[in-house]
Amino acid sequence: MPIFQSSGLSPCYDLLIVKLSSLGDVVHALGAVSIVKRKLDVKVAWLVNEAYLPLFEGVSFVDELVTPRDARRLFRRFELAIDLQGLVRSALWSFFLAKHRWGFSLSALREPLAGLLYTERFSPIKAHVVEMQRELICACLGIEDDGIYDFGIRVFEHEREKVKRFLPEEFVLVVPSAGWRTKELSVEWCLDFLGQWLRITDVPVLFMPGMGDKRRLFCLGEWLLPELSLRDAMAVISLSRAVVAPDTGFLHIADALGVPCLGLYCASLGERNGPFLSKSFVTCNCPSYGCWRKKCPSLCTSSIPVEEVVNFLLGLLEGSSGVYRSKEAVQAHRERG
Question: In the chain, how many domains are there?
């Protein structure tokens, strides 16, 4: 039952969204949560790890950000918490902070023990995580889904001007880094992509490392960007012609900003966790696709053929002026693939 009916709460109360990490998961959750302020007069607070606070600059539908450090002083501060994380850790925070707690059903949770701490549980029907989270929110609040997914992410002009000084006028951005070893793109894969791409187009490729990953990628040389803050990385993404990345936060930021993007999926499922708006992704041919392993002896995401990614990216940018050397070169490359 919706929380209004089950508890008799007024529609004016503090709602806590619990989604602490990771970057891509928080981006996905933004798209799901954006409906709340369109439908209800509530104050929306969000429990999130401190590292992701800059993501929320300019997000209009979140009123208050709470970090775990702040939360220790807020015992049962909130009437209602919706746990979109679904882990024991996030469920414990929900239990500590809110009187009423909604989350996913035991069968839908990565850590089923988390469900024992909720006062209400919901079984999602949809396949994509953004839609699953939207279903949970609508069921909890007793509202009807309007089908509008505004992720709320903004990049400001002064941020773009700041990064333009070290960027070419146009470029394709590749993000080799990821939180899991199985999602990373190898240096060899990146060099192969660089060579194939530059043989058929004048548009340069830049590689943007995640924090702490620059040493692994150093041999990409002049094509490798420095490690950037989150806001600077968002500005670079917003200026790119297209973004190619594994299942990582920067991919989903590109998608939320409306930048053409292509996700590369192996350990996680593109159908469930892929770019929500563009729905553009390619997958590996591995028999254990979607295994959710963080470590694996196989090539994983780097096993996705470079030719396939190049062809897909060319199709993604079809019709853009000044991208290719010639149509003949593009056609020849596709025939070779």
Answer: 2
Q: What is the residue range of 207's domain?
A: 161-336
Residue 273 is encoded by which pair of tokens? Answer: 């966790």
Predicted TM-score (pTM) above 0.85: yes
Q: Residue 88 and residue 116: Cα distance in Å, rounded?
A: 9
At 123 the pLDDT is 97
Is residue 35 a contact partner of residue 134, using CB atoms and an 8 Å limit?
yes
C-beta of residue 337 within 8 angstroms of C-beta of residue 310: yes
Residues 185, 307 within the same domain: yes
Residue 275: closest CA among 314, 234, 245, 238: 245
Query: Which residues of the chain register pLDDT less than 70?
Result: 1-13, 319-337
243 SS3 class:
strand
Q: What is the mean pLDDT of the chain?
A: 90
Q: What is the DSSP string of 304-333?
A: S-HHHHHHHHHHHTTT-TT-BS-HHHHHHH
